[in-house]
């Protein structure tokens, strides 16, 4: 069964139709990229999947269960992890504490008033951070972390819930090229290892074409292409509205 | 009473005519209110500073106008020249305040700026007292507008009619200024991103100063134009600032048209409220504000503010207390335990108060620090605890222990109720709603005489015999306050405290990992209210009586001062702040009549030189010496 | 025209810029290449007076500008286009341009909204639209246009291609080419080498706040080891 099924999603803001009739599905372990020009509706789409926005019409199903319009925190409990375009972490906490918060929430222990956090779920958090290569940073406050490291912390937080689906909004924005490839390779490994479906938006075409199993192209709220990287790259309509002549990408990239 | 309609029309007129006049009178009030509120909202729009001192500028406008008008030759030139001259002088005073004080703290946290302007309020109060004396001053009436005209057979003062015209004219001019001139465009741009405006070649310091000048002129004008209407006195500042805040918040922060609409609403509410609901006039305005904010969380015409650019750095993580702090705390505790048997009665009273205020401040800190919410009305829960205990003693004949157990429950219950509304909003709006509920609680205590004794309070709330001695009661208060404060600290280190900080740091991330931010804030608010209730209950038995002043605005402000003086970012901050503030005020009142001037100056100096509060400054110094992280 | 020597800046005790030196001549495009956090934005902010430098000198057109207020620096003819766009979302396109307007130095034809709409045609079609209702690419065009309204002789252009669709990046490259042709000096910061090499004359590589390499674009393209080490592409 598909991890996520999206059916005829619609959203209007005032007079603007931001998303119209978008349908797609993701299988466990699959890396699916959502690309398109600025303002094409990518973020709107994303925000409807995890409940930050309520769609005007259409259905979102997670492992067969209807989650349309559910609040983000309920969607999370059903197994959807999320990273943000502009990183959102708890700046006044250490890296470890950030992950501990996700674990404590997962185990429904947030309302406890007595036992200090320092003694709860610390080793589980450390194990997760080690998997992401962040073990050495565990004790540092998130407020002073480099941007690329924050992206990794976000990934660790998103994974704390053993999600079935990861939603990553521009996961490598603001990272150096080398870091981008590293992070996406790691994500792909973990996704395959644990059977997590990953949906990501991305502006770096090198990242998209080397890590996506499949690509969706959105323009003015509508899906205009869907398929394997090579086919999407060759699609004339995609070239016209989005990719351009291809001068702005590294030469000779294609699939992996 | 300022809000009573025009006098001299007691001739039993028909109802309709009376209503029309009442409406006109409301319009005149609305007009005056708009002048002050427009200045406040303009200044807030650009500088994001909630300027408490705006009421002081209004008061200075009235005093200066009185001085000018009574000294200048009589006639049109003398009067109108005096009024305009006063407005401009107030503009200059505002300009000086901006250049000397506010300009230096634009990057400081919002509440710190508020604290600084509150320091200015205290300073101006004593300076005005020195310059003009404590007696009310009466000004002359406006030349050419002394008489009244007949409307529907009833007499209506010409001057009121003139005021009705002033508001719309000023609104029109301001809208033109902001939307049709380059200066206005620059100001609106600076409202959003002042640094970027500077990088585009605009001297944004001058721009801010000019905005502050304009806002101050409007406040001064508002005050000066009151001269023919009411006497000039030293209470004008705080009475107008509360109303002006209500108008600005109801209208939507930074929105001129919103302020006009809200001034209209509030002005008419006053005019008719006194006819329809004479019993609850004091709360009516705050009830309306509460309703508006519940329905429209950003006021009538306000919009959610975009996050200020480059806004404050992340707060530091909390950790175990460093050794020197533990040693200092231990030493302080030893003193608090060992010294009192040798202290006199007065000292014991002061020490008991300090213990109570430490808990009061610590409870507010839970909301403000980890919770990231501001409360201008925390005294409500202190007072509700006190009244809970006192009412139980008076009506149920409860023992002291019963009263003390009841206090946190009463306060917590109301915290649960009021908090449900307050924690939905953010920033200044939320803070204003807490103020509204505190005012509602205060006026119920004040006006429900049958239950609470009103202004006479509830007397005879004495401790049980075993705790009647001052020393015993001190130890009881110390034990309960210290225990509760330590409990609050424990909670901050526990998952719930972390969840509070999590939603403060990033609601987006909190919700994305299953944290119900609303519920967390709500419970945090309730816990803080209950803790304040314990403090209030102890306060009631310590004094033997309870008065409405236990939950007055000034007590809420005291708590804010304690937390901010100590420092929001550190757990020891509220404790140090409560010690410093209570000690300082207690001493100042004893040694000088000008304690407001001294306290205000101390606050201003602290804000300028210790923007992280006393505990924050100590920590920075300690970290610098020992090498941080 | 712009000469930076020994420019250092600190954040707390951390060195964020360490003796940065670079030069941009009139009508020249110099690209500052480096990873995220390497110090590109900070270099620009320090030049502009938005970050206080702890040491070093910035001379613009023979005038030392170190330690001056940003608005004074802007008035001397140095324009700044920030990375995060920072347009005034409540103001219309025309009002955004008005905020940037400054008189042109003698002998230079002043930028007008009409001239700018010719350079960025998509902006002309939305003159009265509030900045908040524009797409990212349009906003990026508007930030450049807004800075040009100040009639600068040199602009600092911080990562203009970041987050833009490849098609829009191509249009951006054309606009930068036109500006260079008009005699404007440009200090560009970029991570996108493909974009940078098309529009720049010279490149300077920054890493951990320190200048590691400087040379012409052909030299950079030939220096595989340098690219490998600092740019990882």
Automatic annotation (TrEMBL), chain A:
GO terms of molecular function: ATP binding; ATP hydrolysis activity; L-isoleucine transmembrane transporter activity; L-phenylalanine transmembrane transporter activity; L-valine transmembrane transporter activity
Example of a GO cellular component annotation carried by this entry: plasma membrane
Highest taxon listed in the record's lineage: Bacteria
Domain ABC transporter: residue ranges: 4-245
Record's keyword terms, sorted: ATP-binding, Nucleotide-binding, Transport
Coiled-coil regions listed in the entry: none
InterPro entries assigned to the protein according to its UniProt record, in alphabetical order: AAA+_ATPase, ABC_AA/LPS_Transport, ABC_transporter-like_ATP-bd, ABC_transporter-like_CS, BCA_ABC_TP_C, P-loop_NTPase
A GO biological-process term: L-alanine transport
Protein name, per record: ABC transporter ATP-binding protein
UniProtKB/TrEMBL annotation, chain C:
Top-level taxon of origin: Bacteria
Pfam families the record matches: ABC_tran
Gene3D superfamilies: P-loop containing nucleotide triphosphate hydrolases
Record-annotated ABC transporter domain positions: 2-233
InterPro entries tied to this protein: AAA+_ATPase, ABC_transporter-like_ATP-bd, ABC_transporter-like_CS, BCAA_Transport_ATP-bd_LivF, P-loop_NTPase
CDD domains linked to this entry: ABC_TM1139_LivF_branched (cd03224)
A GO BP annotation: L-amino acid transport
Keyword tags: Amino-acid transport, ATP-binding, Nucleotide-binding, Transport
SUPFAM superfamilies associated with the record: P-loop containing nucleoside triphosphate hydrolases
UniProt-recorded Gene Ontology molecular function terms: ATP binding; ATP hydrolysis activity; branched-chain amino acid transmembrane transporter activity
Recorded family membership: Belongs to the ABC transporter superfamily.
PANTHER family linked: ABC TRANSPORTER ATP-BINDING PROTEIN (PTHR43820:SF2), HIGH-AFFINITY BRANCHED-CHAIN AMINO ACID TRANSPORT ATP-BINDING PROTEIN LIVF (PTHR43820)
Protein name (Swiss-Prot/TrEMBL): ABC transporter ATP-binding protein
Source species of the chain: Siccirubricoccus deserti
Source taxonomy: Bacteria, Pseudomonadati, Pseudomonadota, Alphaproteobacteria, Acetobacterales
